[in-house]
Structure prediction request, 282 residues.
Amino acid sequence: MNVEFINPFIVSTVNALTTMAFITPKRGQPQIRKDEPPNSADISAVIGLTGETNGWVAICLQKSVALNVAANMLGVQKAYIDADVRDAVGEIVNMIAGGAKAELAKKGYTFKIAIPTVVVGDNHQLGQSKNCLYLLIPFETEHGSFFVNVCLETEVKPAF
Amino acid sequence: MKGKILIVDDSSTIRRIIKNILENIGYGDVVEAVDGLDALAKLKQEQVSLVMTDWNMPEMDGLSLVKAIRGSATLSKIPIVMVTTEAAKAEVVEALKQGVNDYVVKPFTPETVKAKIEKFLT
Prediction:
């Protein structure tokens, strides 16, 4: 995977959570994975990327992180993952994809962003797509950990 | 002049955040819609002074809503602020070409929202 892809997703993740949820995550070491299964999470929001570049990006969170993200965005405490929490996490992945899209467009990589899908289930793992390399970016917060998974087609060429 | 603001977004989270920001700065008269079609229905019923709309929504997206508003004899003059993750230059240019008055990129701060809407409501 082209290293140009990594930084826009890191920057947009930190920007989205800091600005909207007042949580500043600390990034761990990004990993490139091919056949290993992704890490497990309690809630994941996935958004498809299509166009000259195809794939998806997901934010996968421990429950404690998701509840605090939603609580901070909405201004109300959350005790369990409800519709509000699912929607909030979906919006965060929307912003992560949008921020990365804008930066990657400057480098000639273009794609459209779909509408997010949210998956809820204790310790679930997202399935793998064929022909994809995974970028896994782990983050730590005061409330627990989460990671951002970026899956992009292995043959990606810039538009120019 | 404090008028009624229509917030259009399929995300209840974003609608609530924007509504909270608007209430905190004295704009408590707010109507919500979940997509472009819902927004057009609300615009038939309510006297709206400003529309704040997302871009990517099911049923009818924000750009289609903008085109519908600008093509309407009765609604065409309503200021429209787009609030969206679409921040690439091509998208911003397209939105402005279709008649959006201003643009807020998600994620956003309350200060940004305040600055953008007060241009049209004061």
Summary: The two ends of chain B are 5 Å apart (CA to CA). The domain at 5-121 of chain B is CATH 3.40.50.2300 (Rossmann fold). Strands of chain B lie at 5-8, 30-33, 50-53, 80-84, 102-105. Residues 70 and 102 of chain B are 14 Å apart (CA to CA).
